[in-house]
Amino acid sequence: MTDAPQKHDDHARSDGAGATTAAHPLDGHLGFILRRAQLGVFQELTGIFGAYDLRPAQFAVLKVIEARPGISQSEAAESISVKTTNFATLIAQMEARDLVRRETSPTDRRGRMLFLTPGGQTICRDVTALWADYERRLTERLGGDDARAALVAMLKALDADTPS
To answer: What is the mean pLDDT of residues 118-122?
Structure first.
C-alpha cells in the first residue's frame, strides 16, 4: 500500500512551534482581514449579549437612542448604517420587547421619534457595562491604549462616512 501524494501548499506558514499550518490565500488582503476581524468581534459580542437576547445591531440602536432621545427613526438608521426598511423591522422587534417606543413627531406627522422605555434603559445600562469590559479586553489584545488609538485612526481613514 502506498501513501497518498502530499499536496504542496504555497500558502503554508509555521505556527512558531515548528508545525506548518495552511494559510488562507486571502490572509494578506486588508478587506478580507477586516471582514474576518469584524465577524469575530460580532460573534464575541453576540455571546456576551446573549443573556439579554440582544444582537450587536440592537445594542447600537439602544446606544444611539440613549445618546439622543427623540432621534428620528431615519436619523437613527443612518447613524448605524442600516437601510431604513431594515431598520423599521429592527425597531418593531425592539418595540415588541418593550425596549423602545415610537412617538409621532410634532413637526412631521409621518416622522417617528424614538425613545428608550424603562426596560430599554435598564438593558442598555447593563449591557453597556459588559460592552465596556469587552472593549477593555480588546484594547489589551491590541497591545494597549496607543495601539487602540492607532487602529481607530486607521479604520476611520478607511471609513468614507467618518468626518475627518
So the answer is: 97
